[in-house]
Amino acid sequence: MANDQILKNTNAKLLDEFNASVMFDKELYAQDIKGSIAHSQMLKEQGILTKKDQEDIENGLLQVKEEIESGKFEFKIEHEDIHMAVESRLTEIIGEAGKRLHTARSRNDQVATDFRLYVQDKNLSIKAQLKELVNTFVEVAKKHTETLIPGMTHLQHAQPINFGYHLLAYANMFKRDFERFESSHERNNYCPLGSAALAGTPHNINRFSTSEKLGFNSPTISALDTVSDRDFALEILFNISTAMMHISRISEELVTWSSYEFQFVRMSDEYATTSSIMPQKKNPDVPELLRGKTGRVYGNLVSLFTVMKGLPLAYNKDTQEDKEGVFDSVKTIEISISILNEVIKTMIINVERMANACKIGHLSATDLADYLVQKQAMPFRTAYYITKDVVTLANSLNKDISELTLEEIRSSNENIKDIDEEILMYLDLKASMNARTSFGGTSTKNTKEQIEIFEKWLKN
Fold first, then answer.
1. Is the pLDDT of residue 320 over 70?
2. What CATH class does 108-351 carry?
3. Exposed site from 18, 103, 349, 357, fewest CB < 10 Å?
């Protein structure tokens, strides 16, 4: 019998640990207390709570908040979740009135409210971080509107662009990320509280009052949908995953650019480390970690998608698995944006190395073909093959096409033996870059116009 009792106690303890969420959903304590205060105020307005009970509840909740933030509060597995932990302590502090707080609500709508408040707060704070990151890219870009760098496709040298223009491509990515978080905040800014378990409540509550107190636009429409909806959590995970994908892309470029073969940039010693065995090496550990952490947030997104895919209406315990991945992804994106921001601010740019790299791969070859089409009235396909002959000659002379003399260009193909020396200007790398004046193009003038657009946006 003794052994049976031990086994029974052990199983009960295991089940408590398996069932409880308080050790991770305590992250929501501030939102839980905020929601409970708003709920109590509404209950008083509706005559469901007395003025005295409501004041005791609110003061008691503020005391619980102070205890949690000062580290005095003891979280226990037997409380199961943050809601019961707070309510139990509240009742210890103020007595019977604490038990009246849960009138006209369920843990189902309570957790939906707490979690949504958390996600909405993070939509705003991450959005602000992204705006700061965009500003950093723009500030660095302003200094490099004439700095040449090879523009690439398929990781092959393609056409000369300026480095500021390259950085603004990332500024555009992070601006879109900003807009995604902004859109998600607006779309999900509706209050679940008062939905109760799944069908509303017979108590005479005012959900519009609660919604306003908590900063939502209005209450959610369907109680049945609301208690099981986690679209808002999936959205922030998707938004974080997309932003981390963009962070990973620039991190990949930073790793490549800082390699010995490229030497386009050198990262500050704060954001790079030496090898444990090779003292001459400087490793780009920070961008590598940023790149690696992207897979982590992807996993959190897929995990919640998998949890939600088979759930019938309404609330199911499965959704207890919705929070840890979100908490983890939020912390990951917050630190990743902060660190990337500092890396971009402090990196040292090797302008000369970038310019020399533009002399590899005949980046102005397209300009020769365009010149022949525009100035010599040649069909593009003819111009294409003539340009190919010029490139072949340049390769045989171990020169870049931009370094050829007029005589060398003329000698490459019978059809251009009398070509005007104006062609030399078209093959100049900086002239090639500045020739691309179409809207969104890489010319210094266009890049400065893009910077002005960003600066106007940043001021809003």
1. yes
2. mainly alpha
3. 18
